[in-house]
Amino acid sequence: MSALEASVRASLVPRGALRVGINTSNYLLVPAASTSDSCGPIGVVPSLGTELARRLGVEVKFVPYASPGALADEASKEAWDVGFIGADPKRAEFISFTSPYVEIPASYVVRSGSSFKKTEDVDAAGVRIASVTGSAFDLWLQRHVQRAEIVPAQTMDAALDHVLHGRADVLAGLRDRLINDVTKVPEGIILEGQFMSVQQAVGVARNRGSEAIDFLNTFIEDVKSSGFVDTLLEKHGMTGRLLVAPPAVPPCIQAPAMKIVVLGCGAMGSIYAGLLASTGNEVWVVDVWQAHIDSIRDRGLRVEGASGDRTVQLRATTNSDDIGVGTADLVIIATKASGVASAAEVATKLLGPQGVILTIQNGLGAGDRIAQHVAPEKVLIGVASNFGASMKGPGHTQHASMNLICIGEMTGGVTERLQRVVDLWAAAGFTVKACPNINTVIWEKFICNCANSGSCTLTGMTVGEVQDNPGAWAVAVACAREAADVARAQGIPLSFDNVEEFVRKFGSTVRAAKPSMLQDHLAKRCSEIDAINGAVPVEAAKVGMSAPVNQIVADLIRARESTF
After folding, report:
1. Cα distance between the two ends of the chain
2. Is residue 84 a contact partner of residue 48, using CB atoms and an 8 Å limit?
3. Residue 377 near residue 355 (C-beta atoms within 8 A)
4. Backbone conformation region of residue 385, classed left if phi is above 0, alpha if psi is from -120 to 50, else beta
5. Which of 55, 78, 130, 530 shows the greatest Cβ crowding within 10 Å of its Cβ?
6. Euclidean distance between CA atoms 453 and 457, whole angstroms
7. Using one digit for the tens of pLDDT, what is the confidence trace for 133-163?
8. What's the CA gap between 151 and 441, in Å, rounded?
9. Contact 14/80 with Cβ under 8 angstroms?
10. C-beta neighbour count of 211 within 10 angstroms
11. pTM here?
12. Strand (E) positions, 87-162?
């Protein structure tokens, strides 16, 4: 054993066994039935605690607490060595936290007849919110709620009782728990979206030293990147109910600041702009939605969800002439597919001598449309997977998850320029990688879009609801199979054999999401159908094939759009 390993063990395990503090009220991580098991608790957290002790070469002893607040309060009393608990700035005053290993969205239950339509409506004068004292979401509410009253409760059952007996108007809680509690509230509904995401992490008392927290951070990043946490979620039935947290940004990544222009500042464009601006880049956004631009100018851009909750200041305009010709280092085209060609014309004027265009859209053909206006050597193509993004209102975007962004050269390969752009995104907190063959990534995302977009739009269902409905799911899988068959016929290498399994896994992390095509129809806007389901028959014809299911879905979508 090295001197460093001995020092870490001495710091983390001063009494011979690793004492792991666990919150038994979090049934997602520590199922209630497991705590009375004669063999000890089971679940995601006990499994992680056991693995941590194994790597330290010591026995594990679990120290249970009935609430997260009780666990946190014992940190200074040396009652446990490491604690699995939601990270929070208030707790961080006396506990050092690792990066999160999983995230749990939190929302509200209200009565359907109330005036609340979205989570931000709840913070209003005269509103009473029942919340569990000391929980991570309660600490968030204590910091952020300005007008509503927080009604304290010791447990979720007690908080629910406040609502049932008229002592509170709104029930706050983790979304998965609320799915059960909402059935007990007469005419109860869960508001869409989330007001925050609980970041579950590992904590140690601050007096344990930097070596201890560094070791734990390395452990957490390893169990995430190796797939160990994914395996535990699947083993304990938590896939889709808990989200694996994105990797922490390595401190060694110090990407130089750039002048960045985002063309198309919808839900995804706003996320790109907000996070890139938060790391010191000069970011401009261009969009035709005047109210959105005005809100960003007046109050900043709020990005809420899996990446945290932040409001950033950046420059916003409806007129790209305000930015300056030939001054941008990076132009990100985040418009819908139909707007790519016109955005490419604008991008060529804004691009500096060494600048590059990065296009990120759903569907096929964005790179080809841009190449009509600029040399392919100046174009990068990106694919964003499983963000579950939507606009909450002008100046406010939210995303339920934050999986992966793949970026590749349009002409293939990995270049120094590509790596610089990847580092820029990584420094902003994105999970991102350079892809030498971006076409494979594009087609695999396209196949999933074909499954989810048309089926959700025609039924009005979320991704998860389509997966759970046999009829809708049969249509979704048929669309995906046709797209996969066309890809293979065109010589596109795919990373999977079982189409249905691949598409289901893709959608499992965003079950509550409404695809952008459905969001367009709900707003009576024309969608990107021609670049998604409608593109499959076109691509099929190139190799002498047909795609009848996608053709029917696309025709029905177009028929509906003809009435908008």
Report:
1. 70
2. yes
3. no
4. beta
5. 130
6. 6
7. 988 888 888 877 878 999 999 999 999 999 9
8. 48
9. no
10. 15
11. 0.54
12. 95-97, 102-111, 128-132, 149-153
